[in-house]
Amino acid sequence: MKVYNNKDWAQFVFMVSKSDTIRKLAPLILIIFVYSLGVTYLEIHYFKVTADSWVRNLPQMHSLLSFVISMLLVFRTNTAYDRWWEGRKLWGQLVNNSRNFAIKIAGMVDTQDEENRRFFSRAIPIYAFALKDHLQSKATEYSLHDGEIKGLPTKLSPELHVPNQIAKGLFSRINHLYGERKITGDQLIVLNGEVSALTDICGACERIKNTPIPYSYSSFIKKFIMLYTLTLPIGYAYMLGYFAAPIVAFVFYVLASLELIAEEIEEPFGDDENDLPMEKLSKNIQRHVGEILD
Amino acid sequence: MKVYNNKDWAQFVFMVSKSDTIRKLAPLILIIFVYSLGVTYLEIHYFKVTADSWVRNLPQMHSLLSFVISMLLVFRTNTAYDRWWEGRKLWGQLVNNSRNFAIKIAGMVDTQDEENRRFFSRAIPIYAFALKDHLQSKATEYSLHDGEIKGLPTKLSPELHVPNQIAKGLFSRINHLYGERKITGDQLIVLNGEVSALTDICGACERIKNTPIPYSYSSFIKKFIMLYTLTLPIGYAYMLGYFAAPIVAFVFYVLASLELIAEEIEEPFGDDENDLPMEKLSKNIQRHVGEILD
Amino acid sequence: MKVYNNKDWAQFVFMVSKSDTIRKLAPLILIIFVYSLGVTYLEIHYFKVTADSWVRNLPQMHSLLSFVISMLLVFRTNTAYDRWWEGRKLWGQLVNNSRNFAIKIAGMVDTQDEENRRFFSRAIPIYAFALKDHLQSKATEYSLHDGEIKGLPTKLSPELHVPNQIAKGLFSRINHLYGERKITGDQLIVLNGEVSALTDICGACERIKNTPIPYSYSSFIKKFIMLYTLTLPIGYAYMLGYFAAPIVAFVFYVLASLELIAEEIEEPFGDDENDLPMEKLSKNIQRHVGEILD
Amino acid sequence: MKVYNNKDWAQFVFMVSKSDTIRKLAPLILIIFVYSLGVTYLEIHYFKVTADSWVRNLPQMHSLLSFVISMLLVFRTNTAYDRWWEGRKLWGQLVNNSRNFAIKIAGMVDTQDEENRRFFSRAIPIYAFALKDHLQSKATEYSLHDGEIKGLPTKLSPELHVPNQIAKGLFSRINHLYGERKITGDQLIVLNGEVSALTDICGACERIKNTPIPYSYSSFIKKFIMLYTLTLPIGYAYMLGYFAAPIVAFVFYVLASLELIAEEIEEPFGDDENDLPMEKLSKNIQRHVGEILD
Amino acid sequence: MKVYNNKDWAQFVFMVSKSDTIRKLAPLILIIFVYSLGVTYLEIHYFKVTADSWVRNLPQMHSLLSFVISMLLVFRTNTAYDRWWEGRKLWGQLVNNSRNFAIKIAGMVDTQDEENRRFFSRAIPIYAFALKDHLQSKATEYSLHDGEIKGLPTKLSPELHVPNQIAKGLFSRINHLYGERKITGDQLIVLNGEVSALTDICGACERIKNTPIPYSYSSFIKKFIMLYTLTLPIGYAYMLGYFAAPIVAFVFYVLASLELIAEEIEEPFGDDENDLPMEKLSKNIQRHVGEILD
Questions:
Q1: In this structure, are C287 and C156 located in the same domain?
Q2: Distance in angstroms (rounded) separating the CA atoms of residues E268 and E92
Q3: What is the pLDDT confidence band of residue A35, given thresholds at 50, 70 and 90?
Q4: Do both D223 and D190 map to the same domain?
Q5: Which residues cross the membrane (chains A, B, C, D, E) (predicted)?
């Protein structure tokens, strides 16, 4: 995630950052530009379009459809942002949960019981790291992290579902404490909620990751943008001459940018500039849980 | 559900996939096209419309109403997408729930108690398969799945509500464990939440399935689109000549596509390309629960 | 509620069903039509409006305000639909709740304890029927339903709040079971949530029923539609001649339909075509609870 | 709150009720009307504006900005309505809560224990009345209501936070019952949720009451409406002559009405026509709790 | 937060308060104004633009894109407002929670147990103050507040996460009470929810604070506004002459204001006029908790 000073307009307007849509769209914008020049040339020099030609009135269709296309793009923007923000909320809950879990363990488990306290102090943050890797689908070596942790499966099998295995380890340990009467049944209920919340967060993140917006919308919006832009110079050439080319290119830049940003945002678990800082959040969890339990 | 590479614009724009609206709408688009040609012919050669005719100003009405129609379609799109996404969330919860359920059983039930562990290891995923079949209304043979499971009614009567019977079987078994003092009252409360969640998910899916958007909206939007498109060539013929036909056809394609996609999306429990991958999710549940309990 | 085949466009477009807005609006549309003819006649033959008259430019105001009116109508549509969908969700929860309640009773109450099982098997569905009648404000005879049920007040006083009395009866019985040690304290907590949920659903339905959208909005939207439509022919008569009449009538049909549908939808507890199938849902509850408990 | 028959359009369109925005805006509308006449007079007789004057094209700006202003007003409308509806939901929850509380007390407390039953039968509805008065900031005498209630502070100090004191009294009594072993620990947990819910509702109502929409939006929208309306006649005078005056006044009426209604709605705890019927709801609570506990 | 009388339009329209966007935008508006004058001068006196020039038709592009820009700004406005309102809700929950916590402690802890009552009476409000300072990132001296509180870490290390340390202190004390059998297990569960809620609120506030809207949107909207405004005078100069300058400046004022207000609102934890009154809310918590526990 890119941190930025929201107030500095000059920076936003004149700097073209690495993630700017204009970079990614540059080739397509150029093609549209050249295509528009071509259309204009044909209309002026070849077809010799005159004032009574039908193309004069084509822009009427474009303004008729401009509402539909704007609204579709805003629908797309809203949907993508909602997914991104839901992802952020889920990781926020993960932070909360991990802290609450640690605070409760700190209060319930005897301060002498070094072993159990260390177990949770290490196992809770591992969950966040495992989830991050799981969502980025790396076969990661977090199982090496901090040496082996007794109570978690010695080697987390990476071909299995890793966060689940950690959750299972956490719950078993809690249940074990209950079996040993180190915590009471009331405390069991309290702690149980924390472990469930972890797997709920994991499942919700998976849902966002593996369910893109329905294919039909994604396909229709792209088709619509292209057809809309490609018919635009036909009507504009008459009105604007060769200047139609930069204008059509600009309209395409605006429409395609919105679709492009939406595509980036709606998948918040990568490591682009717009993606969630899961690495940092995991480290925060590690630090906070450490502060509380060590 | 169709998995796709969101970034490949060329594929989206130039390929016409099986589920594309343009295929389904082709006959209607053709009719509109021919109708527009007919209207144009009549206006030009029969009525000989002149510059002072009233039809010159008809497009004013269309642009006046273009906001209303755009907004209605976006309302439709939002509603349909919300239903689809709610369906996806519910199945995501089913995954979470099944995992949590298994994790808790794994922690609570004695590791020696092979019988009970196997019961839950099989009965939990069955719920997901049963729900899938229930939502797709097939008289399915999942009761044969994996042989008979002791503790579930020997033969799930397909004419009864199958998911309910499984939930009843699950809850009875839990209560039985409590009666045998294999789990405590505190653990009972913990497990109880899981079973309730299953039937809540089932009920919510049924609600989405059996309650379409109110008839009045569905009917009004279709009427409105048709009346809007059919009056469009009357005004456009004067301005655009025979080229009015492709333009009217294109406007119709855009408006009708949105309605058509909405219709597909709002019912997420079929087995179209846009529908939820319930089969796959059920298998995931089976695999995860297996990993945890076996 | 009307069940319909969403895919059959022809049916939607050419059939005018009983609940179609065009039927209800027919008289008003006719009045608007005649009024527009009158305005046009006056402008053409009496005032002899010419090209430099100010009325030529009146449509500018209408297009300026067309955004506001469209957005207001969509706000109205969204609000009404949200109320309708919330009503549907509440009844969905009622179904879930009743099932969960029954499943738990089935697990907790001894299978020999015929009396208690029958009590709940009958009393739970009664709640749904009572709520339906309560929401439709009929002084109904459901108290006769299935003879007297021991444990519910012999005669539910219809002048009192009936669903409350049933909930009170259910809760008393549960508490009684707890007093007799037939269920434990842990089970009491589990069952208690179910009864609370019933009254929460009842209260939420009452809220939807007795709180229409604020008077100011309802009144303003209607005033705005009428003023907008009545000034429309003044500007259109010049441009469109006598054809202004059908066009103004069509614009009015569109705007008023949206308001009319919203009015119907926002009150989902009647027995119109668009209203919720509470009778059917109640019968489903009865059937499912029966399957589980009998 | 005004109860009204939604279906009677004539009433809405031709009657000007006391709370109609047209009454409150009348002076401002008149000023705008006279101002527009003045601008028109100046343009026609003093500046003698001709067809090539720039003012001819000013309306272009107004139509460019008409989207922005419409959308801002809809944002305003949505926000205000959401606050109003949230207020309504909170009071709905208060009704539910009070009923649930009473139902549970009725089941748990011995039917012989007149004293405790009477305490709750009186103290629960008092909370609703106190909240109403608290939200309307009256130094009220509800402490006199129904004589002194033993167990509540003899005189509720009005300078303190009254609803809090009642909640404290309720919780103390419940805890007292638990101390006297009249209710079990399980029942304590059940009842505890009810008291918490009461203070949560109180806090949420306070939040709505004491947090208006951010000053910047409120100020910007009003400035925008005025600047928009005041520049409107400059461009319209050329096109519409003296008829610009009623048209500008009408546009102002529409825009200002939306802002005005939003202002009224967003503060739902007064005693205007659009405000919530808290008095009535409190009386309903009193009646229902009475039915259940007496 | 600025408290204001919503009804006084004159104040809003004619007074320019300190936080008004017009002040902050004044330099930029001036630049745009001068730039527009320059463009107009060039077009009229240098390029001598004539009626058949293409620039005559440039405004067509601006009206085509006016929907997109309006909708983007409303998306921005909605998003910012949602963040602000979520922040407000979280602090409202903090108030509720603190009260509920105090009410429960008041009921559970023996009235003689001065020490514990004083501990909670002081420690609960400290949490709110600490959260405020934490969110405003001041290295504050609240640890000095009210002298040392036994049971909280003697000196809250400001370099650690302060609210977490207080929550840990609160939970330890509760668990201690449970260990000493001063509260039962049932009461532990009740109190536990309150402490969890505190850290959940803290985490959610942190999420809002440290996650701005994705960089891509923020950057794209600013670029779009600037490009849109800077090309506007090119088309308007022909139509409006030198009067294009104030009009372009006004359009820029409207668009940039919306972006500017959104920027201020979306970060609700500063101490601007639009920010949340956290200081005041914390003092309220202190007063209410004091009323309840002292």
A1: yes
A2: 14
A3: very high
A4: no
A5: 25-44, 64-81, 225-255
